Amino acid sequence: MRRLPAEWEPQHGVMLTWPHADTDWADHLDDVETLYANLAATISRYERALIVCRDRDHAERVRGLATRAGADPARLDLGIAPSNDTWARDHGPISLLTDQTRTLLLDFRFNGWGGKFSADLDDRITGRLAASGAFGDALLETSELVLEGGAIETDGRGTLLAVTRTLVDPRRNSGRSRADIERELTARLGIRHFLWLEHGAISGDDTDGHIDTLARFCDPRTICYARCTAPDDADFAELAAMEAELKALRDPHGHPYRLIPLPCPTPILDADGARLPAGYANFLIVNDAVLLPIYGDPADAEARSILSGLFPDRDILTLDCRPLIRQGGSLHCISMQLPGAPPAPERFC
Prior knowledge:
Layout (H helix, E strand, L loop, with lengths): L1 E2 L7 E7 L11 H16 L3 E6 L2 H13 L7 E5 L7 H4 L2 E5 L5 E6 L2 H4 L9 H8 L6 E8 L6 E2 L4 E5 L14 H12 L3 E5 L17 E5 L2 E5 L9 H13 L9 E5 L21 E3 L2 E6 L4 H12 L4 E6 L1 H4 L9 E5 L10
Parallel strand pairs: 2-3, 3-4, 6-7, 9-10, 12-13, 15-16
Antiparallel strand pairs: 1-5, 2-17, 5-6, 8-9, 11-12, 14-15
Helix pairs in contact: 1-2
């Protein structure tokens, strides 16, 4: 039997793919590397950080940046794999727990969110890391289904929440119906209860509506979600329609979910006046803590207070993610949790 664990379950680490000069971060590399270094240092307070670097010279630079930011060197594991970009949530492995003692890693296809961006190197990262021993003795299973980690959310008990168009998409999974994809996810991930949304999006999002920017399980009965209260906001109609859909969802026992709205920050625009995808649902859960993206907005404090109530036994830590949203994502998008026993340190660079 296989089970997709919830993010709040025990983890041994978080995977990050570090930016470099050949990624879209080139014009803002100093700012984004500072953010990554602070993130790696924060993760290392609670668990290991597996950092994917483009080559060994890059790995040594990354090690120095992270340790100078306060990362625990004993909890930094550096893996080598060339990369197009840094969205580890979408090109990293999806980890399953099974009846066996070894973790099972699922390597789905990644095609740059339906071919919007080059992803040939990113699509091979998980396989390359596994071949190098970066995941220890975890088993690796591949699938031809295009599936990004940011597109799915689970309660850890066999329920999956997703926006239909991020999976049932001719640019991602041509010729596959929703029923086809449900069968694949049941077989691969052990999913038994599907919750599909048809609405929900935030401006500046290239993913077509990844669920991790919109709605997140906080426990098996509770979903927090992005809500816009300004009728003249460009995101108002879609988020209101999504809210109505969430209210209609039922758990496997036929009960409605406890729904907790998150505020929307004031719109943040890029140099050309385009709105960037700032939101609070894109938080990362680690052992004993929740890492919340903030944006220098008055709503930051409200979002932190809400998450404190939802995760009362965890530290609520904030990270200014304005550098990240320049490229269309936030904190959860650049990270992928790795549950299970930690791999042997000697397997890493």
